[in-house]
Structure formats: structure tokens, C-alpha cells
Amino acid sequence: MRANDSTIPKTKSEARERLSSLRKTIEHHRYLYHVLNKSEISPEVLDALKHELVLIEKAYPDLITPDSPSQRVAGEPLKGFKKIKHTVPQWSFNDAFSPEEMREFDTRVKNMLTKVHSKKVLPTYVCELKIDGLKVVLTYENGLLVTAATRGDGVVGEDVTANVKMIESVPLSLKEKVSGVFEGEVWMGKSTLLRVNKEEIKAGREPYANPRNLAAGTIRQLDPAIVKARTLDVFIYDVTALDKEIPNTQTEELALLLKLGFKVNEHFVECRTIEEVIAFWQKWQKKAPKEDYWIDGVVVKVNEKAYQDALGYTGKAPRFGIAFKFPAEQVTTVLEDIVLQVGRTGVVTPVAHLRPVSVAGSVVSRATLHNEDEILRLDVRIGDTVILQKAGDVIPDIVAVVKEMRTGKEKKFVFPKFVEDTDGTTSPIERIPGQSAHRCTNKNMFSQKRRKFYYFVSKKCFNIDGCGPKVIDALLDAELIGNFDDIFTLTLGDVLALPRFAELSAKNLIEAIDNARTITLGKFLTSLSIEHVGEETAHDIAEAFGSIEKIRKASFENFNNVYGVGEVVAQSLAGWFADEHHSALLDRLLSEIKIESQKSKVKGQRLSGQTFVFTGTLATLSRDSAKEKIRALGGEIAESVSSKTSYVVIGENPGSKYTKALSLNVPILNEQEFLEMFK
């Protein structure tokens, strides 16, 4: 039945009474359906009740309340998102990837609590599923939803209140008139993703890779109507502020959230030992794919609030909790070919061409096989069914071959004696003595030359804005550049002759080239692509000699005496600078650019004698900027972790260096702790 004008109450008193009844009934069935997954009436009946509610409110607009179900109706599109400063700082958890790391976490927690309480303490843990979605912070006043915000940078987030109101599982009013801040995860079901992707494909658009990306994009839509149509959901898991006493344990806190009317994920458990935590994690690795939401691990928290308070926080994460991540996603696909790729230093890398497959939310068709020894170790053959693994944003790896799938038609790969260049010519290759890598003996390969130019203009070197690989390719193909110094002699007319360049874009490129004419000595040495001389070695050489003039005159012995430079690198440097063609190139470059003097490290600087290793993605600054901060205070950067490493700095999705640092007891800094060192 639908409400019509004849059903609208004649008086305001009757309307107020009818609206009160409608709101309670609709809220009751909303809670049953969207929070408890139950239903006592059909969707059509619920729609009829909502329709009647809206008609009465239109007739009596002064009776509309902030928590009325009608307030979930999407209004006009937003012009933009306002910023909201969080009243409670928003933390993120550190990650663990193995049972060993969890046992280390357990030991750290117990040792710290024992120190605080001067006696042995045995905390319990609560395991909650780690939903792969988008964090949301809800603020209620006197039981009414006031604001909803994204996490942002932990201090300031975006106001997404209008969009969050479109999520039926978020209560507009709580079952008690309390004020507080509550945290949760907005997510989208796999089934909803399928529906949305069918619509995208039908409209001729690209489908979304995974529900997390679609959920994050949806909550930031400027049109709430789109949010409502896409059917987001939410789980609330934490009370961070409350105008009454917060429960003494995490399990009691989850019970309070349920009591207030929030949707709480039911799959949480209290564990007495870390081994029970590990067992729960192992169980949910198998069960996770069966749920409609994506699960990428288990959040483990100390259950007792008093112990949580005692443990406190690091710069960015609570010490009382950790995200116990599931192993990297693995899939199978077919290796269709192995193709050799020549790098800028001439090293030849075998690349597997794969039948395209989706892994960890992205489609992959290439994977490096590293070198000949790795191919032999895996016994991988063209035509094999292989296991592909990808962890976060890390390059995909072939980790094993499914040999049971072999038909006998697979072909072993034998490293050829020659490699074909992009221009159709071939060049000989050889295995580097004492190493597992091969290299091309022709130093003038066109593909190698391209990669050297790509590197020369990159951020690690001259950092020429707007001069990416496509521009370099166009310049090379037009034969406008052949040596590094040619870049600095380009004119506006040269660039305008290239395809897709208008006057403004051509002027911008010439201006960017001019702005890049001043460079530090370390970056200049890096840009030359000298064999065996990476970024860190280049900076060590720069600091040891101080000027390009001294480096050009240096001997093998001079290079070999630099700390961190071995005989192989010293020989490569001495040979490169002794070459007359390289000497001529340097003369031409030095007539076009200016190299800033490089100060030697001064003993007694704050970070003198300390070595840093980075792993993972930093959120607030680039890896290069972080390295410059360290060098400015006399510190060193290394690429691998050893017992001599002073600190390992971790970002999002840290790799094996993080695990090695834990095993060697090397101090670990998160990004916030790292930045604190420079205040």
C-alpha cells in the first residue's frame, strides 16, 4: 500500500504521533535487516512505510528531525569536501606477516607490561577480522550522528557525512543518548562489485579491480545519490571517546557498540595465548574467501584496557595492537614466453610473459625471473603452469611451478648467445664472471641507450619535469639527441617538431631543462650510469672527493680507498673516467650545467656513523627526500640490512628487509618516528 494525500494526518498533533510511530518502525526494521541480517517484513512493505513518512514530512516540514529515515535520501551533489580536524588522533597498526613475528610481538608486550607493573603480567588478546575497506570516524552528540570523516593523515580528514548517511547500517541515532567518537571500516561486498562492474562494462567503461578500491572511491563521490545506489556497508570496532566510562576490556567495548545499535563484525574471539591467536589467523586464511567482504588479515589487540593504556603508542601506531596480515595472494597462470630485457648498465634480465591474471587486485602479465640461476632453480619452462605471488605493491614473483600440470610440450629455456635490440639488430651477451647475471657486450645497444636516458632525466638524477620515457623516445627517434649533453642544447623549434607538442608544452619542457642545469655531485655521478655505481656509491664517491675535477684525476687506488667501494667498483670508476669518449662527454656536459660543491661528512654531525635502510612506501615524503635528510646530518644509506645497520625505516607494505631487521634486532622506525629525528 502507498500513502497518498488522504492518509496525511489533518492536524500537526496527529502528524507528530504518526511520524513517531513510523520512525520507530522503520528504524527497527532497518536495524534488523542491515545490522542483524534479519527481516520480518518484505522490502516492499518497508518502502511503503518510508514513502508515507516522506509525504507527511513534506506536509509538515517543521516536524523533520535529524535522525529521520528521510535524511538518508540523497540531496544535491556536493561542491567539495570540507576538512575535519579529528578530536582523537587516528592511528594505524603496525603489521606482522608470520607466526614468528607475532611471537615477537607477544614477547614485547609482556616484557613492557612486566617492567611497568614490576611483576609478570599475562594479558589476553582479542582477534578481530581485518576488513579491507576504508576507515571512517563517526562523531555523535546526544545520540545523534553529527559528522563522519575519513582518516586522512591521522590529524585531519575529509567530511563525508552526507555520503555516510547513505549507508543503511550506520545509525543516524543511537539507542542511548550518548556523545562520543566511534571508528569503523566502510566496505563493499563482492556481490555488489559484480553488479556495479556489469553496469560499468555495459556503459563501455573499465570495471573496478576490487571492492576496496570501489568502496574508497564511492565514499568520496560528490554525489550522495551515487553512494546510495552502490550499497556500501560498515563494521564499527572501536570507541575512542565517550561521555561515560569506556568498558574495561575490548570484548566489553564490542558488546557496548552492539548495544548502542552499531553493526559489529561477529567473528571476533578472545584468546588466552599467542598460539591461540595464530590458530585463529590460520583458520581464517581458509575461511576468508567465503565472506562477501574482503579480509586481508586479523587485527590483534590486548584485551585489557588498563594494559592498553600502559603500553601506549609509538609515533604512528599502538603498541598494544598489531595487524596480522594473511600471506601474499597467490594465483596460477601459464608462462607463455621468456624474453630478455637489457637494462641501462647492460645487465640482461629474463622476463616471463604470462597469460594475464588478476592477483592482489591488479592484472599482471609480466614477472621478472631475475637471472639464469633462478630459472634453473625453479626449473621453469615455457608453457608451464606457474604460481604467481604478489604482496601489496611489490613486483610479482614466480615462486613455483605446478609440475603436475606438465603435458610434455613445455620447452626448457636456454640463455642465448645474442640478444635482439629494439631496432632489429643483435648483440652478443655473456655471463658476468663470478655472478649469476648476464650482460650485453655491446655498450651501444639502442635499448640500453634509451634506458640510460630515462635514468638521466629521472628524479634520482637531473629530475627534468615532463621529460618522461615517451618524450625521450620521441627525441631519440627524431635523432634530436644522441648523447646526454644534447638534452641541454635543445631549442624550442626542436621540441615543436615532435608529435603532440604545442607551443605551451614545448616552452614548459625547455624551461624544465633550464631549471635542471644545476645538480649535486652525487646525483650527477648517479646520472652517468657507470657500471656497478649505484645511487649510494655515487654519493659516497662525491663526499670523498668533493668535486668532479678531483674525481676525473683519481686513480684506481684512490677509488679503492673510499669506504664502501670495493675493487670491482673502483676498477669500473677508474676505467670509465679514463675513457676518452667519456672525457669528451664530461667536457660537453660541464659546459652546459653547474655542479654544486659536495661537502664531506663532518664528524660530530647528529647522524655521523649511523646507517639507515628503507623498506615500504613512505606516506608524507619521497624516498629521495628522506635520504637527503639523512645525508644532510652526516648519516649513511644502505640497500641491505646487516647487524651493522643503525635503523630500518618502514613505510606501508614493508618487505623482507623488515623481517630481517626483526631477526637481527635492528631498531625499527616508522615514518613518524623517523621524522621526529629531524625536529
Short descriptors:
679 residues, alpha+beta, Helix Hairpins, D-amino Acid Aminotransferase, Chain A, domain 1, 8-stranded antiparallel beta sheet, 5-stranded mixed beta sheet, globular, DNA replication, DNA ligase (NAD+) activity, NA-bd_OB-fold, ligase, zinc
What does the model show?
The protein is an alpha+beta fold and 679 residues long. The chain folds into 6 domains: 5-72, Helix hairpin bin (Helix Hairpins), CATH 1.10.287; 95-324, 2-Layer Sandwich (D-amino Acid Aminotransferase, Chain A, domain 1), CATH 3.30.470.30; 329-420, OB fold (Dihydrolipoamide Acetyltransferase, E2P) (Beta Barrel), CATH 2.40.50.140; 446-516, DNA polymerase, domain 1; 520-596, 5' to 3' exonuclease, C-terminal subdomain (DNA polymerase, domain 1), CATH 1.10.150; 611-676, BRCT domain (Rossmann fold, 3-Layer(aba) Sandwich). It is built from 24 helices and 27 strands. Strands 12, 13, 14, 16, 17, 19, 20 and 21 form an 8-stranded antiparallel sheet that branches. Strands 2-11-10-3-9 form a 5-stranded mixed sheet. The protein has a 4-stranded antiparallel sheet with strand order 5-4-7-8. Helix 12 (446-456) crosses helix 13 (469-477). The longest helix is centred in the first third of the chain and has 23 residues, at 12-34. The N and C termini lie far apart (67 Å). Its EC number is 6.5.1.2. One of its GO terms (biological process) is DNA repair. It is an enzyme of class 6 (ligase). The active site is at residue 130.
